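Need residues for this backbone.
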């Protein structure tokens, strides 16, 4: 089944994804394309029922105001112009409402009455479509997936298991910088519950040996990222008959990496970052989905909530939360204190309303008292932030009783720790992570 689609053409708006998400919330699929798409390119897109011209304050490129090809108005596809209340650019345009609910109501007449689009965009249809597409593309060949345990790669794995079963080969590399129980959870879910063809590689000692004495954050990131690729390549080299590489590219990766004319927010490694001489063909079944849709897909595929709602986690893992040169002692302090924080947030229901929360252990010690004796041990720093786009972040106000309980547990249960602090710095001026 192919879903009906409303195409959004970017004429300098900073709110394209908001508009696309509002249309999807109505049950109709929507994608964003550059303003200079040709009528022929538009007609080749599947099931296009309508086009929205989304103007905005960035509608000037190289000194010229951008516009669409006039022939787009003669394709027989309905066209609607949308302007923003802070920058109206067309007296005939529909003005953008401030609230999401009002925006959806404003779009309904065009989407349903003018375009006659069917509200057939949902996870059940999406999963069925992707399974069929994957079967057609892959046939009886094998697919390789680097399974980090993150939301995106986990959902890709679950979807591919449905489509090709044992012809999917998952490789999970434990670099020793995972949170407590995460690698074990990946093995339990995918190998034991989903019966996946999973290769588990414990490379903890290898990574920690490479990181010994390295204190510069950027150098740590480069070592961790580079060594991960080396391990993955080694494991892939032991396998025969791998024709496809799967990855968890999602729609914001594509949008943020820019179009032919739109500004690039940031280039993602999984969008145009792979070598040109790569011998694999790509499988990217989630590239149409926003993050919340990825989570909904994971739940529909039967993944546990603990995996689907996994906290955002940096690629270098706990390596950038064990500040300075990593030691095994402080790494365990980060791992154990983080587990306590996550457990207590879950018990209090805070895991459902806080975007990201974690602990940090710096590379200095402070004086304390334990059992009437002087101690010289490490502090643990708690961080809990809320954000929409990770560009800015506010601090979550944690109830005092919860903070007291977390503090008491950490200083009594985590070895080598005698002090707990709560980081109240928003972004900016601080960043979300410490390194």
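Answer:
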């Amino acid at each position: 089944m192919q879903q009906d689609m409303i195409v959004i053409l970017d004429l300098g708006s900073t709110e394209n994804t908001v508009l696309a998400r509002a249309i999807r919330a109505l049950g109709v699929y929507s994608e964003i394309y550059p303003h200079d798409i040709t009528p022929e390119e538009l007609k080749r897109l599947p099931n296009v029922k309508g086009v929205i011209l989304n103007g905005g304050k960035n509608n000037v490129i190289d000194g010229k105001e951008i516009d669409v090809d006039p022939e787009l108005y003669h394709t027989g596809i309905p066209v609607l112009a949308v302007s923003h209340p802070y920058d109206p650019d067309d007296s005939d345009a529909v003005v953008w409402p401030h609230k999401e609910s009002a925006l959806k109501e404003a779009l309904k007449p065009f989407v349903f009455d003018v375009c006659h689009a069917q509200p057939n965009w949902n996870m059940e249809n999406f999963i069925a479509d992707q399974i069929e597409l994957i079967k057609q593309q892959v046939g009886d060949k094998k697919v390789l997936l680097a399974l980090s345990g993150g939301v995106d790669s986990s959902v890709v794995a679950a979807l591919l298991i449905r489509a090709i079963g044992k012809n999917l080969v998952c490789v999970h590399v434990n670099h020793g910088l995972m949170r407590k129980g995460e690698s074990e959870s990946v093995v339990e879910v995918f190998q034991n519950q989903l019966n996946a063809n999973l290769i588990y590689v414990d490379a903890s000692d290898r990574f920690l040996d490479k990181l010994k004495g390295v204190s510069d954050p950027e150098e740590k990131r480069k070592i961790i990222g580079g060594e991960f690729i080396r391990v993955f390549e080694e494991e892939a080299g032991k396998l025969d008959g791998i024709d496809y590489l799967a990855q968890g590219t999602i729609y914001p990766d594509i949008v943020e990496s820019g179009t032919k004319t739109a500004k690039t927010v940031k280039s993602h490694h999984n969008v145009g970052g792979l070598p040109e001489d790569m011998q694999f063909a790509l499988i990217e079944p989630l590239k149409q989905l926003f993050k919340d849709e990825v989570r909904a897909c994971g739940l529909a595929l039967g993944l546990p909530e603990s995996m689907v709602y996994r906290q955002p986690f940096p690629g270098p893992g706990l390596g950038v939360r064990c500040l300075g040169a990593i030691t095994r002692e402080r790494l365990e302090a980060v791992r154990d204190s983080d587990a306590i924080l996550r457990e207590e947030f879950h018990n209090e229901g805070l895991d459902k309303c806080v975007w990201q929360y974690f602990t940090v252990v710096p590379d200095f010690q402070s004086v304390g008292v334990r059992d009437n004796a002087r101690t010289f041990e490490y502090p643990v720093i708690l961080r809990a932030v809320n954000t929409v786009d990770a560009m800015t972040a506010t601090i979550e106000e944690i109830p005092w009783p919860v903070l007291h309980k977390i503090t008491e547990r950490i200083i009594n249960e985590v070895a080598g720790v005698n002090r707990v602090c709560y980081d109240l710095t928003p972004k900016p001026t601080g960043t979300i992570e410490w390194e």
